[in-house]
C-alpha cells in the first residue's frame, strides 16, 4: 500500500476538487452549520440566564459537535456514490490519495464547524475561556480523530443498505473513547483552575494516530473488492 | 463424544467445587462465588473478540468464507458471554455496593464492547452479498479493535474504580487462598472449553 | 510497452447465478480484442474483473508488460475505463473534469493547451467551460472518451463506447481505436454492436 507522500499531488487534487464542488453546490456544509446552530440555540433558550457547570458545558459542546458530524460528514462518499462518480474515482484515482484527500476535506469542514460553534457557544451560554490555547489544542485533536473515523466509515457504508442510521451506529463505539477524553479535557479547560497538559492529551494524540493509521491501512480493503 | 462427556463432568465438578470446596472470602463472604462465574465469562468474551479479529485478518488475507463464518460465530458467542459477564457483574455490584450500574470504568469498557458488537451485527445484516459482507465486517471489526486496548488499559487510569483489582493489572490476587486459585483456574478452563465446543460444533455441516 | 493479459479458468458466480465457468484465453498486447455476447452474459463484469474492480470467484489472471510480470496495483494505475456506469462530475466543467482526471495519472497534469486540444478533437471545444450538468448524454460520452488519451494509460477497457453517440461521435471512437493501435495500447472492447465488433483483431464470445 503506497505511502501518500509520493502521490501528494493526487491527494491535493482530490482535496481541491471536493472544495470546488462544495463551493458550487453547498451539498453538506450548510446543513452541518444549521444543525449545530439550531441545537445550540434551543439549549440556550431553555436555560435562560442560568450558568452551567464546566462539565455540562463540555458535554454539550461535544454532543453538538458529534451529532453535527453524524449529520454532515458522510457526504464525501455517499454523494459520490449516488452520482455514480465513485467508480470513476476508483479507476482513475487509486486508493490512498482518495482517502487522505477526503479525510483532509472532512477535517477542514470540522475545523470550520468548530470555529463557527465556539464563539456562538461563548456568546449564547456565557462561557469563559481561561485556557484558550489548550482548548484549541484539544479541539484540534478531537477533530482529527472524528474526521479519520467518519471518513473511513463513510466509505464502508456506500456498499451497505440503510446508510444514514448505520453511519452513526458504526461510528459511535470508535469515537466514544475519543469523546470521553475530550470531554474530560474540555471540562478542565473551561474550569478556572490551572490546566496541565498531561498524559491525557498524549493518549488523545496517540489514539488519533492509531485511528488514522488503521483507517489508512484498512481503506484499501473497503475501496477495492 | 468422549469430549462432551468429560466436559460435562468437568462442569459439574467445577460447580460443586465453587459451592462446597471454596471457603468464604475475607470481606466479600459467600458473594465471592459469583466471581467464579463472572471472571471466566469476562475472560472468554475478550478471547472471543480477539479470535474474531484474528479470523477477520485471515479472511482478508485468504478470502476463504470459512474464516468469515468462524469470525462471525466467535463474535456472536462473545456477545453472549459478554452479556453473562455483565449480568453477573451487575448482580455482584448490587449485592456488594448497592447499585447495579454506576459507570465504573470496567462497565464503560463492557458497554462500549456491546456497542461494537451491536454495530458489527447491524452492519452484517445490512449487506446481502456474502463476500462483500465478509470483507466489510472484517474491516469494521479490525477498526473497532483499535479502540480495545485503550478501553481496557487506559480509561481505568483516569476514572476512579470500585472494581476489585483485575488479575491482569497487578498481583492483587496472588495472595488468594490456594484452593480458590485452583478452582478459579478450573472454572476458566471449563468455560473456555465450553466456548470452543460450541464454536466448532457445526463445523462439518455448515 | 504494451500490456498482455492471460486468464485461466475464470469463474464468476453471484449467489446461485453463474456467469461463466472455465473461461480461458489471452488478450494480446497492443491489439484490440472484443468480448461479445447476449445481454446478461457478463461482458461488463468481465471488464471490471480485468480492471481489478471485482474478484473472480476462482481462476487466475497474469498481467505482463514486455515479458515482465505486473502486479494488480500496477495494472490499476495503467487502466482507463469507459462505460455507461462511469459518471463524471456534474459540478465541474468539461475542462476541469479532464484536468482533474488527467492529473491522477502523472506527477504534473497535461498542459492547458493539450487539454483544450483534446476537447477540440472530442468536439467539445465550445462547451469546454460549461458545467457538465448541462451536457447531454452524448456529450458526456464524448468527454468520457476524451479521458482515454488524456490519461495516457496503456490498457483501455471500453464498454459500449458508441452508446448515445451520433455519427460524428462514432467517428471519434474510430479514430481513438486507430490511435490506440498506433500507440500500441491494449484495447478490450465489450459490445454487441456489429460496427464496434468490426474494430477487433480477436473476438471472444460469451454464452
Q: Which features does this protein show?
A:
heterotrimer, A: 225 residues, globular, disordered N terminus, C: 207 residues, alpha/beta, Rossmann fold, 2 domains, four-stranded antiparallel beta sheet, 9 strands
Brief summary of the model shown:
Chain B is 75% helix and 0% strand. Chain B has 206 residues and is mostly helical. Chain B has one domain (2-199).
Secondary structure blueprint with pairings:
The complex is a heterotrimer of chains A (225), B (206) and C (207).
Chain A lengths: L7 H18 L3 H19 L6 H19 L2 H9 L1 H9 L2 H30 L6 H26 L5 H28 L8 H25 L2
Helix pairs in contact in A: 1-6, 2-3, 2-6, 3-6, 3-8, 4-7, 6-7, 7-8, 7-9, 8-9
Chain B lengths: L1 H20 L10 H31 L2 H33 L7 H21 L4 H16 L1 H12 L19 H22 L7
Chain C lengths: L2 E12 L2 E11 L4 E6 L5 H9 L6 E8 L2 E3 L1 H6 L1 E4 L11 H10 L8 H10 L15 H15 L3 E5 L7 H16 L3 E5 L3 H4 L4 E5 L1
Output the strand order for the largest sheet of chain C. Answer: 6-7-8-3-9
Q: Give, in order, the helices and strands of chain A.
A: HHHHHHHHH
**CA-to-CA gap between the ends of chain A?**
15 Å
Largest interface, chains and sizes? A-B, 28 and 29 residues
Shape of chain A: globular
The pLDDT mean of chain C sits at: 87
Mean pLDDT of chain A: 89
CATH top level assignment of the largest domain in chain C: Alpha Beta
In total, the number of domains of chain C comes to 2
- The total strand number of chain C stands at 9
Compute the number of helices of chain A. Answer: 9
- The name of the CATH architecture of the largest domain in chain C is 3-Layer(aba) Sandwich
H/E series of chain C? EEEHEEHEHHHEHEHE
The number of helical elements of chain C comes to 7
Major sheet attributes of chain A? none
Q: Gyration radius of chain A, to the nearest Å?
A: 18 Å
Q: What amount of the residues of chain C lies in strands?
A: 25-35%
Oligomer designation: heterotrimer
Amino acid at each position: 500500500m503506497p505511502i501518500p507522500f509520493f502521490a501528494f499531488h493526487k491527494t491535493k487534487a482530490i482535496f481541491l476538487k471536493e472544495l470546488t464542488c462544495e463551493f458550487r453546490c453547498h451539498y453538506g456544509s450548510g446543513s452541518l452549520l444549521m444543525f449545530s446552530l439550531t441545537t445550540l440555540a434551543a439549549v440556550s433558550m431553555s436555560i435562560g440566564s442560568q450558568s452551567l457547570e464546566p462539565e455540562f458545558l463540555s458535554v454539550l459542546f461535544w454532543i453538538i459537535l458529534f451529532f453535527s458530524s453524524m449529520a454532515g460528514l458522510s457526504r464525501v462518499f455517499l454523494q459520490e456514490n449516488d452520482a455514480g462518480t465513485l467508480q470513476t474515482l476508483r479507476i482513475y484515482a487509486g486508493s490512498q490519495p482518495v482517502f487522505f484527500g477526503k479525510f483532509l476535506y472532512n477535517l477542514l469542514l470540522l475545523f470550520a464547524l468548530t470555529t463557527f460553534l465556539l464563539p456562538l457557544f461563548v456568546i449564547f451560554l456565557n462561557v469563559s475561556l481561561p485556557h484558550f490555547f489548550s482548548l484549541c489544542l484539544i479541539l484540534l485533536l478531537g477533530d482529527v480523530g472524528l474526521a479519520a473515523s467518519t471518513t473511513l466509515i463513510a466509505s464502508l457504508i456506500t456498499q451497505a443498505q440503510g446508510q444514514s442510521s448505520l453511519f452513526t451506529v458504526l461510528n459511535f463505539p470508535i469515537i466514544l473513547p475519543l469523546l470521553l477524553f475530550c470531554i474530560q479535557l474540555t471540562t478542565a479547560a473551561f474550569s478556572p483552575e490551572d490546566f496541565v497538559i498531561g498524559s491525557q492529551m498524549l493518549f488523545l494524540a496517540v489514539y488519533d494516530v492509531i485511528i488514522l493509521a488503521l483507517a489508512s491501512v484498512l481503506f484499501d480493503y473497503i475501496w477495492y473488492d | 463424544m468422549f469430549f462432551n462427556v468429560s466436559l460435562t463432568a468437568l462442569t459439574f465438578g467445577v460447580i460443586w467445587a465453587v459451592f462446597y470446596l471454596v471457603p468464604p472470602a475475607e470481606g466479600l463472604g459467600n458473594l465471592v462465588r459469583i466471581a467464579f462465574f463472572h471472571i471466566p465469562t469476562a475472560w472468554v468474551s475478550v478471547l472471543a473478540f480477539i479470535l474474531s479479529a484474528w479470523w477477520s485478518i485471515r479472511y482478508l488475507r485468504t478470502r476463504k468464507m470459512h474464516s468469515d463464518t468462524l469470525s462471525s460465530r466467535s463474535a456472536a458467542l462473545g456477545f453472549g458471554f459478554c452479556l453473562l459477564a455483565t449480568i453477573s457483574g451487575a448482580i455482584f455490584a448490587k449485592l456488594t455496593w448497592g447499585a447495579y450500574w454506576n459507570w465504573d470504568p470496567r462497565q464503560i469498557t463492557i458497554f462500549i464492547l456491546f456497542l461494537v458488537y451491536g454495530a458489527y451485527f447491524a452492519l452484517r445484516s445490512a449487506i446481502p452479498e456474502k463476500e462483500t459482507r465478509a470483507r466489510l465486517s472484517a474491516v469494521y471489526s479490525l477498526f473497532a479493535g483499535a479502540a480495545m486496548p485503550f478501553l481496557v488499559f487506559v480509561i481505568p487510569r483516569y476514572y476512579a474504580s470500585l472494581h476489585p483489582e483485575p488479575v491482569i493489572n497487578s498481583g492483587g490476587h496472588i495472595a488468594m487462598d490456594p484452593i480458590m486459585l485452583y478452582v478459579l483456574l478450573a472454572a476458566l478452563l471449563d468455560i473456555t472449553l465450553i466456548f470452543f465446543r460450541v464454536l466448532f460444533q457445526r463445523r462439518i455441516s455448515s | 510497452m504494451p500490456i498482455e493479459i492471460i486468464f485461466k479458468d475464470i469463474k464468476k458466480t453471484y449467489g446461485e447465478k453463474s456467469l461463466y465457468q472455465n473461461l480461458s484465453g489471452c488478450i494480446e498486447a497492443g491489439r484490440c480484442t472484443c468480448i461479445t455476447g447476449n445481454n446478461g452474459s457478463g461482458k461488463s463484469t468481465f471488464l471490471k474483473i480485468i480492471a481489478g474492480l471485482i474478484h473472480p470467484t476462482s481462476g487466475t489472471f497474469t498481467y505482463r508488460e514486455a515479458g515482465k510480470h505486473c502486479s494488480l496495483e500496477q495494472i490499476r494505475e495503467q487502466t482507463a475505463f469507459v462505460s455507461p456506469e462511469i459518471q463524471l462530475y456534474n459540478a465541474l466543467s468539461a475542462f476541469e473534469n479532464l484536468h482533474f482526471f488527467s492529473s491522477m495519472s502523472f506527477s504534473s497534469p497535461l498542459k492547458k493547451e493539450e487539454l483544450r486540444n483534446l476537447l477540440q478533437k472530442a468536439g467539445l471545444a465550445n462547451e469546454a467551460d460549461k458545467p457538465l450538468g448541462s451536457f447531454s448524454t452524448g456529450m458526456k460520452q464524448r468527454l468520457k472518451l476524451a479521458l482515454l488519451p488524456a490519461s495516457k494509460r496503456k490498457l483501455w477497457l471500453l464498454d459500449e463506447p458508441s452508446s448515445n453517440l451520433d455519427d460524428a461521435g462514432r467517428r471519434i471512437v474510430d479514430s481513438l481505436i486507430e490511435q490506440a493501435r498506433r500507440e500500441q495500447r491494449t484495447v478490450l472492447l465489450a459490445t454487441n454492436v456489429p460496427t464496434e465488433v468490426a474494430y477487433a483483431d480477436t473476438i471472444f464470445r460469451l454464452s
